[in-house]
């Protein structure tokens, strides 16, 4: 993923990566950054789900559902639209809040053998090199990725849930 510019690759596919990592670092090399990933994805998931639930409640309220004005059940299109908007808002919120953790995790994972830094050293380096904005490097792609992933996942999940529901 981060092996250099075009034509100057260190690896020739996924199996080559696994073979070289096993040779240089052993089985532990395959799990480099696993703990950091869990520490990044857990808060990200918590923020995503909390934001999704909250944003849906707000959107439904803005549409007038759950009030006395409500006359009939919302259309399928309205339900999917609210879920889509909730997924986008949740992805945007989670990415903005947790990008700093992801930046630190990624830096630690891609450092070579000669540069084994601690999280504290990475934080200090980011601040020295780019100031506080360095923590938000990659926010755009992460924002898009989390919003697209979350939206497609939640719309598919909610659709399947409706299909399986007994009337």
UniProtKB/TrEMBL annotation:
Keywords: Membrane, Transmembrane, Transport. The keyword DNA-binding does not apply. It is a multi-pass membrane protein. It comes from the Eukaryota. InterPro entries: MCP_dom_sf (IPR023395), MCP_transmembrane (IPR018108). It comes from Davidia involucrata. Its main location: membrane. GO terms for cellular component: membrane. It is found in: Membrane. Belongs to the mitochondrial carrier (TC 2.A.29) family. Solcar repeats lie at residues 1-58, 78-163. This is Putative Solute carrier family 25 member 44.
